[in-house]
Structure prediction request, 253 residues.
Amino acid sequence: MKKWFLISTIVLLMIINTNPASAISNAPIHWGFTKGKNEQQAEAGKAYDELLRKHHAFYKGDPNKKVLYLTFDNGYENGYTPKVLDVLKKEKVPAIFFVTGHYLTSEPKLVQRMVNEGHLIGNHSWSHPDLTQVSNEKLKEELKKVKDETARITKQKEMHYLRPPRGILSERTMQLANEEGYTHVLWSLAFKDWLVDQQKGWKYSYDNIMAQVHPGAVLLLHTVSKDNADALEKVIKDLKARGYTFKRIDKFK
Prediction:
């Protein structure tokens, strides 16, 4: 009996040790937070703050420094990214563009321009799936294909930042991303800007950004939005006038 118990215990330990991810939750988290206002920071709550800290992820920076981080999600091109890049170049503002496989294969020249002009390319997955619903192997493949194709068409050989598709993540996906050398970059400022058939004019974008902005904000914008492209230059100039500066996400503190 004792021998059988010992063998059973050893087998159980082997199973646990060979599958450590089994103890990690894959419960989907749909990223959300209480929006910032009056230049007070957005808040996701203690539980999310602790979970992100555990996996070296972040969604906002130092509340005492008027530093902003521009991030753009690029699933496909809608004709406005060149204008966005023109504004960033004119205003000397860096950004990170989270791209998909579709964007890399359809717009390699724009991706190359991003890197040439000092911006970062981030990983938004190859096919934009809900990463909590794919296997470990598929998740790694999704990230590797974006990294490899970016390296092939640009001078950026390394990739360390991940924006989860649809803002859906779990502790499992964060841990796997960490193992692959990635940090989850979430956001503390966003609004419904991605619906191309519901654009409302540049002031809609401008007003939403200015109402939510706060020290340390990580801004999520979509380049498919005409509103964003038309508002961006005024947004940047007016935020600079308020004393804000812009840093690239790899300078995050």
Summary: The chain is about 40% helix and 15% strand. The longest strand covers residues 67-74. The beta strands are 29-30, 67-74, 95-99, 120-123, 161-162, 168-169, 183-184, 218-222, 245-246. The two ends are 57 Å apart (CA to CA).
